[in-house]
Amino acid sequence: MEPQMRKERAKMTKEQIFRKLYTNAVKRGMYLDKIPRDINAAFFDNEYCSSLSMDIEMLMDEVFGDHAEAISWFLYDWNPGMICRSGESEHKIDSIDQYIEFMKKHEGF
Length: 109
Fold this sequence. Notes:
The chain is mainly alpha-helical. It has one domain (about 15-105). About 70% of the residues lie in helices and about 10% in strands. The protein has helices at about 5-10, 15-35, 35-45, 45-65, 70-75, 95-105, and strands at about 80-85, 90-95. A hairpin with a 2-residue loop joins β1 (about 80-85) and β2 (about 90-95).
C-alpha cells in the first residue's frame, strides 16, 4: 500500500471504518452467493481462514472497543428489519445509517 493511502486511512473515523467494513462485507457476500455451498465450505474450512477471522476480531476489538460485538453483529448477522433494543424501547433497523444513529443515540458510538 502506498504511503499516501496509508495516511488517508489513518484519518478515518470509527464510523468511516464501520461503513467501509460493511461495504466490503456486502461485496464479499454477493460474490460468495455465486459459489456453490460445498465449494464455499471447502474453501473456508481451514486454518488459514480461521486465523484471518481471529485477526479481524482482534483488530475490531482494538478499533471499536466496547462496541466491537455490536459492530460484528451488524456486519455478520444483521438483516434488514431486525429489531434492536435499548432499555425498554425497540428500534427496527433497515440500514447501516439507521444502525449508526441507533448506536450514537443509545450506545455512545
